[in-house]
Amino acid sequence: MSELSNFELEGRLNAQRELIAMLLARLTDGPDDPLWAIVEQTFEIQDHQEDPGAVPDAAFTAEAEMAREFRLIVERAKYREARSQTG
Predict the structure, then answer these.
(1) Roughly how many angstroms between the first and final C-alpha of the chain, as a whole number?
(2) Contact (Cβ atoms closer than 8 angstroms) between residue 13 and residue 32
(3) CA R_g for the chain
(4) What is the pLDDT along the chain (87 residues), one digit of tens a residue?
(5) Helix %, strand %, coil % for the chain, to 5?
(6) Minimal CA–CA distance to 32: which of 67, 87, 82, 84?
């Protein structure tokens, strides 16, 4: 398999994010749906340390990026859901 450029990788990731956001928005029944609370729990990195990330390492970086991606997907899904509710 040939190596992908940064633009190709970004395009693919954006498509996946958009599809997941679309599906999540369709699965929920408004802003009070309990699914939002479950999904939003994934935002928190829980390593039970006093100062998480004080000594960053590769594992923490990957976990932080995963939490960031969850946040981006949920923000997009909530935006899509709100748009579908209004029109």
Answers:
(1) 43
(2) no
(3) 16
(4) 579 899 999 999 999 999 999 999 999 888 889 998 888 887 776 555 556 556 667 777 888 888 888 889 999 999 988 888 776
(5) 70, 0, 30
(6) 82
